[in-house]
Write a structure and sequence with these properties.
Rhopdopsin 7-helix transmembrane proteins, 267 residues, single chain, mainly alpha
């Protein structure tokens, strides 16, 4: 594809202005989140680094619109496809921390902190590896590209399954009065803090589900298909959900509920 044009890579003529705007917006959210992190647990760095990765992805998209390059196009695809996996990991970590810091004498194995954190972490890493491997293979010959497409599809499908399982576990934990959270400076009490965190987790997980379904349909539809070729769908179902998630994490910043030096109860 040495003589390929921009349209050959995208299968349509991409619009100018949108990727630059998206890059700036994600960069701003990254800066805000970095500032908010002062005094919070270090694992919350997942949030600003995800926004920063999204910003880089859209910068690469802007460059790809002007200069066609297979390597650059694949790198852009990876930066826009993979970072949301980190947001799923963040939500898993939040629920795992709540389980870890609470005492439930009848805690089932699937609600134990190690299971919540490591089982879903493992699924997220597995999905990440499948998607990155598949996306890399799509830059090769036709046979490898077809295999890569289905590997990406399987990775996204696995992510959807585990997101649904995680939502069920999170529902039980947030509903039970035995699971406590640390009250933040803007919370009237622990109950309000728990409600706010639950709203954050379920809303962002729902948005991530929408984005993952879109990506799954896109890969099933195939390169050059109606879904892949609809640029408006990419911004509506990929950019908007991830950006709104970033805004939710900023507005309902739960880092205050997980201070860096909180003593964790043993389970």
């Amino acid at each position: 594809m040495d003589d390929a044009t921009v349209e050959d890579y995208f299968s349509y003529t991409p619009i100018h202005g949108a990727p630059e705007t998206a890059a700036v917006l994600f960069f701003i959210t990254a800066i805000v989140l970095f500032v908010q992190l002062k005094g919070a647990s270090r694992w919350l760095l997942i949030l600003p680094f995800t926004s920063l990765s999204e910003s880089i992805g859209y910068i690469l998209r802007s460059i790809c619109i002007k200069y066609a390059s297979l390597g650059l196009f694949i790198t852009m695809t990876l930066f826009l496809l993979l970072p949301p996996n980190a947001l799923a990991l963040f939500n898993y970590k939040v629920v795992g921390q709540i389980s870890r810091s609470s005492f439930d004498p009848d805690k089932k194995f699937w609600m134990k902190p190690r299971f919540v954190t490591w089982f879903f972490l493992g699924s997220d890493i597995f999905s990440f590896l499948l998607q990155s491997t598949g996306a890399s293979m799509m830059s090769q010959d036709n046979d490898a590209a077809k295999i890569g497409k289905w590997i990406c599809t399987v990775g996204l499908a696995i992510q959807l399954v585990f997101l649904a399982m995680f939502s069920a576990v999170a529902f039980v934990i947030f509903r039970s009065p035995l699971y406590k959270v640390t009250k933040g400076p803007k919370d009237k009490d622990e109950r309000m803090a728990k409600t706010r965190i639950a709203w954050t987790i379920f809303t962002t997980t729902g948005l991530l589900y929408v984005r993952s379904i879109y990506r799954l349909v896109e890969f099933i539809d195939g390169y050059g298909g109606k879904v892949y070729s609809a640029e408006w769908a990419f911004y509506v179902f990929d950019f908007v959900p991830i950006f709104v998630m970033s805004l939710i994490y900023i507005i309902s910043f739960i880092g205050y509920n997980f201070p860096r030096y909180t003593q964790i109860a043993s389970v």
